[in-house]
Amino acid sequence: MKARLTIALLLGVASMSATCANSAEMAKAMEKKSFGTTPDGKTADLYTLTNKNGMQVAITNYGGAIVSIIVPDKNGKLGDVVLGYDTLDGYVTDKNYFGALIGRYGNRIGNAQFKIDGITYTLAKNNGKNSLHGGIKGFNKALWDAKDISRNGEPALELKYTSKDGEEGFPGNLSVTVVYTLTNKNELKIDYSATTDKKTVVNLTNHSYFNLSGPGSGDILKSVLRVNADKFTPVDSDLIPTGELKSVAGTPFDFREPTEIGARIDSDDEQLKLGKGYDHNFVLNKEKPAGLSLAARVEDPASGRVLEVWTTEPGVQFYTANFLDGSVHGKGGIAYGKRTAFCLETQHFPDSPNKPSFPSVLLSPGQKYHTTTVYKFATK
Ligand code: BGC
């Protein structure tokens, strides 16, 4: 009921902006409202970005989380395509990272330890003996400073957060800026930037859970995936990469041709057993090492929605929500079950701080970290 009301309100805003066509209307491209009060008494807001096609993305500055992405299906009907919660409280207690900004280090660091210049840094352990997604209080639990920086007729939200030297064990004060831009080509573009005052490691990503037929529509096994990767990084029983870059050829990790996500997910493959499904980093094929290139494309035959992921990053974690078990209730009270969503987390490879052969995640004073990822929506 609540979800229906939210969607009705959002559709209302969409049709309002569709009827106006001048710059006064552009102000409406970004709407801000209170999303609730954090446990330490601060107000979190919800920003709704609307483009000229009526596509809408709602983002809270709590954890920088994407709360909804509303896009048309093949019949032009608008609908939400990400899992999440109706209220701030959901995000405060969430353990699944729905829609959140992840840092300082997205994915796992083995034994929650790494060395820089011979100094060992010990991190908070929040995944057995390992560190996952930034630690116990990662960037997904921070309240970010938000600013409307919409320009050229496209809504854009800037989020800033300073992670203190020693936070969760990471060295250096890290100043982070993330900009979400909703383009008029139905792209959600995310620009991540950071600088540090001490050598550190950085790996920022977004953890949206997509279901192109909408949350509550069942599993994503019939969605058809293409991943632009000839190799992936196999893992051990803790989901830490072994260090090998393994060819996908002849394995259930070969998504070079469009293939249903569910086609091989329960096959007798050691890597799939370790992940309880897909929970692996793919080594992206890069034509231009520094530029944006296609990481993955997903087509949902039921809704006709298509998602393309473009990134400057060398890797993408493909995760089929194997750990959701129906115990978490999200938007509209829907129970989120196993494999009812997929994540495509663009990133550097897991455990890179301990794998000298992987692309480096080191950031030094004077350098600027900058990566871009684009989620592009279309229909077929
Ligand atoms: C990880 C999973 C983890 C999930 C949610 C993914 O990025 O690879 O193993 O369960 O995030 O926490």
Kindly describe this structure.
This protein is mainly beta and 380 residues long. The chain folds into 2 domains: 2-30; 33-379, Beta-galactosidase, Chain A, domain 5 (Distorted Sandwich). 9% of the residues lie in helices and 36% in strands. It is built from 4 helices and 27 strands. Strands 11-12-13-14-27-23-22-17-20 form a 9-stranded antiparallel β-sheet, with no helix packed on it. Strands 1-2-3-4-5 form a 5-stranded antiparallel β-sheet, with helices on one face. The protein has a 5-stranded antiparallel β-sheet with strand order 19-18-21-24-25, with no helix packed on it. The radius of gyration is 20 Å and the shape is globular. The two termini are 30 Å apart. Residues 1-27 have low confidence and may be disordered. The site of beta-D-glucopyranose has 9 residues, from β24.
List the helices and strands and how they pair.
Layout: H1 2-19, H2 23-26, E1 30-37, E2 43-50, E3 56-60, E4 66-72, E5 78-80, H3 88-93, E6 101-102, E7 108-109, E8 113-116, E9 119-122, E10 131-132, E11 145-148, E12 156-163, E13 174-182, E14 187-196, E15 200-201, E16 205-206, E17 224-227, E18 229-233, E19 246-247, E20 259-260, H4 270-275, E21 279-284, E22 293-299, E23 305-311, E24 315-319, E25 343-347, E26 362-363, E27 369-379
Antiparallel strand pairs: 1-2, 2-3, 3-4, 4-5, 6-16, 7-10, 8-9, 11-12, 12-13, 13-14, 14-27, 15-26, 17-20, 17-22, 18-19, 18-21, 21-24, 22-23, 23-27, 24-25
The structure holds beta-D-glucopyranose (BGC).
Beta-D-glucopyranose is lined by residues 96-97, 107, 239, 279, 317, 319, 323, 345.
